[in-house]
Design goal:
It is a single chain. The protein contains eleven helices and eight strands. The protein is of the alpha/beta class. It has an eight-stranded mixed beta sheet, with helices on both faces. Helix 9 links the parallel strand 7 and strand 8 (286-291).
């Protein structure tokens, strides 16, 4: 295990003065841009790159990792994808594609010197989709893969949202939400009010709104709504068919993933935990972690299961047990 003194030592590192923060240049067909990353700790064999959700959210979703992973001497790297708050924001929908973001992750990997001897890729929600896509495109660079709170088929997500989660609401509330969606009245304050009161606090983060951590409030404040709507759509009850991700499905391709893989699901998630358990059996070397008290952001509402399970997976892969 990495010694604490080595883990905390940034001396002679190019990002010492900035406390691990740097900007990485990204080449695209639309020009040169840069993305924001921040490294926490030093561990030559366990380096975890964090892919945030959204699309268009921020690394702030993972700030609670600071309370758990340093004690395990695990290196992790915050990263805001292009057009997210801390990175450049060219605002060009031509770049809002799976292909672009996979290539962007590969450019970030090269710049950080991540490789098959140390590179763990963690993705949650949209980040989980991106992690799957990266693993299919560049498996030779990965040491391990973590797919958190994301199913492998958008249509399965849509069905679960409308057939299982929606009916758990009071009938009049669900009916009003669906009516607002049929009218495409997504900017109506009532739409967000109903979702926050009856959906988000039940299935995204199971805490009263006035107790939500500041990191989550900042994530919502900094969300790139144009990018989010373009790629996933307005609705919180399934992705819009004409959005970039509207028909995404990689279930049939999971068997091609041969790197050790952890899928994470939660009882109260917006995604079906049984599907995520199934995914662990489809990849070649899979493990499922269930968070019985958690929802979509299980790192916040079920850290007692989320972090021990994540750390155990990282250790087992690093020591050749998976």
């Amino acid at each position: 295990m990495t010694e604490l003194s080595d883990y905390l030592d940034y001396s002679n590192a190019p990002d010492q003065l900035t406390g691990g923060v740097r900007r990485i240049p990204i080449s695209t067909p639309k020009g040169e841009f840069s993305v924001w990353v921040k490294r926490v700790g030093n561990n030559p064999t366990i380096r975890v790159l964090l892919l945030h959700g959204g699309p268009g959210a921020t690394h702030e979703l993972y700030e609670c990792f600071d309370g758990y992973l340093p004690a395990e001497a695990i290196e992790y790297i915050y990263y805001d994808q292009l057009d997210s708050h801390y990175s450049d924001q060219p605002g060009d929908p031509a770049l809002w594609t799976i292909e672009h973001f996979v290539d962007e992750v590969e450019q970030v990997r090269r710049a950080l010197g991540l490789d098959k001897d140390n590179f763990f890729l963690f993705g949650q929600s949209w980040g989980g989709m991106l992690a799957i896509e990266y693993a299919l495109a560049h498996p030779q660079h990965l040491k391990g893969l973590i797919i958190s709170n994301m199913v492998s088929d958008v249509q399965a997500y849509n069905r679960y949202a409308r057939e299982v989660l929606g009916p758990q609401m009071p009938p009049e509330v669900f009916a009003e939400i669906l009516q607002l969606e049929r009218e495409q009245d997504y900017e109506n304050p009532r739409y967000e009010e109903l979702l926050m009161q009856h959906h988000y606090t039940a299935h995204v983060l199971r805490m009263p709104l006035d107790e939500w951590p500041d990191s989550i409030l900042r994530t919502f404040k900094h969300l790139n709504k144009a990018l989010y709507v373009h790629m996933q759509g307005h609705s919180e009850f399934g992705m819009t068919p004409n959005a970039t991700l509207g028909n995404w499905n990689r279930s049939a391709d999971l068997g091609r993933i041969d790197v050790p893989t952890l899928t994470i699901g939660a009882t109260h998630d917006t995604m079906d935990p049984e599907h995520m358990k199934w995914m662990a059996g489809q990849v070649q070397r899979g493990r499922y972690l269930h968070c019985p008290n958690g929802s979509h952001l299980a790192q916040y509402d079920d850290p007692q299961h989320f972090f021990p399970g994540l750390v155990q997976f990282l250790r087992d892969v690093d020591e050749g047990r998976l």
